[in-house]
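Marked as duplicate of an earlier ticket. Keeping the data here for the record.
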Amino acid sequence: MSIAWAETFAHPRVALSADPSAPQGFEWLVGRSPALDAVTEIIRLVGPRRSTVLITGETGAGKELVARAIHRASPRAALPMVAVNCSALPEHLLEAELFGHVKGAFTGAVSARTGRFEQAHRSTLFLDEVGDLPLELQAKLLRVLQEREFQRLGSSETVKVDVRVVAATNADLAEKVRRREFREDLYYRLNVIPLSIPPLRDRKEDIPLLVEHFLEKICRAEGLPRKRVSPAVLDHLRSYHWPGNVRQLENAVEMAVALSGGREMLAPSDFPLPDAQEKSEAPPVSFRSPLALPEEGLDYEATVAGIERSLLAQALERARGNKKRAAALLRLKRTTFTAKLKTLAVPDVSG
């Protein structure tokens, strides 16, 4: 291991991946935000234990990377972590994948196979997308968590294992329990130590460090001179909602590097982001509007224009005439905001 965990955790507000090319899986842990500090503090506390951890978070937020960080912070780090995606295989194959099988256990079992639980003996088993486990397999997983023993498919021999289980899901398991799609007893067995991963939109202050990290990593892998980004690029990236989280940001940086040719300095135009960003951060709007429709009806276009004009003027006033800040308050691009000011003839209220 190229970084000692004692050194890593001695500076929790510094990027935990000092060498971007090292195959550590710590990319997501780059940052200095309070949200990231909270996660690293939990990793520091639970890493040395054998308690089961349930990691929750959106797709692309870095659940597997956090699982690997927990493993590397544990006494089991000398052995590799074993990972299984519970949604990637049909039920009959997933059972054999987890518990192994003997020769002839089912059609096509031409030889014996060691399962993932057995492979993870004295190490960590990462169960990704555990919420997708079929109910029958959930019962078998519960027994393994309770007894730390199982039987291979086609065998009556009991195999005992010393395995630390870290599970992850992007589903609401409590809601699945209420819908009887997930066993309540298994949920409590997995949720011994809950660890919620914040989405990138909740830690945008980490975007500059993440961009620098990915630039270093990608340019080194491609054998390219180090590329840089302007402050305008960082403003552009911070204005976006990032529904795909850190994974989407890394893909955006990789595309920018590929499309920039020989230029050293990357520009905002190298990062084309979906226009959905204008609305992506707005809270859900109720269809029960406070504006009542009169019996006689109303002039729709004039009414909507009046509402828009009022919101634009309020934003300008609150931002003291700063159009960029006013646009941000309404989750609009500055160019869109300026165009609406002209179209709707909103008076300029410069500070």
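See parent ticket for discussion. Residues 201-280 form a domain with the Helicase, Ruva Protein; domain 3 fold (CATH 1.10.8.60).
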